[in-house]
Design goal:
alpha+beta, two-stranded antiparallel ribbon, 2 strands
Length: 132
């Protein structure tokens, strides 16, 4: 699988150099890359997910000095493409207001229990494990 990104329109040949089974391979393909093609809008997040995966794999193999830089690239890519990653998350905030007696009210929002998670090992919002 090859996922690539380009910045400018281009008509011509592209040479791809890679490794297959540990051996170098090279092949040339004719391409016609438009500056913008709305039919390909869904490819951007696919590319970004592949980029995040590649950066994560590199970070696992790198020393600690480069890990911070790779983590920063992962976060930047995720934010640029509105993706959730190990360094980002998105929170939905309800900004509607309901006014009652003026005192704040906590509303507990139930969530589904993740598959294969034993409830006795989860923590309720009040503190200790439920099994305690």
């Amino acid at each position: 699988q090859l996922i690539a990104r380009y910045r400018n329109a281009y008509v011509g040949n592209v040479t791809i150099n890679a490794r297959c089974g540990g051996k170098p391979v090279s092949f040339t393909l004719p391409v016609n890359l438009p500056q913008v093609d709305e039919r390909n809008a869904s490819l951007a997040p696919i590319w970004a997910r592949a980029k995040i995966s590649e950066l994560s794999d590199r970070r696992l193999g790198e020393g600690r000095d480069d890990a911070a830089g790779l983590s920063e690239q992962i976060i930047t890519t995720a934010l640029d493409f509105s993706l959730v990653s190990e360094g980002t998350s998105f929170v939905a905030v309800d900004e509607s207001r309901v006014v009652s007696d003026g005192k704040p009210t906590t509303v507990n929002q139930p969530v589904e229990q993740p598959e294969d998670v034993d409830r006795k090992f989860t923590r309720p919002s009040g503190g200790g494990a439920q099994g305690e």
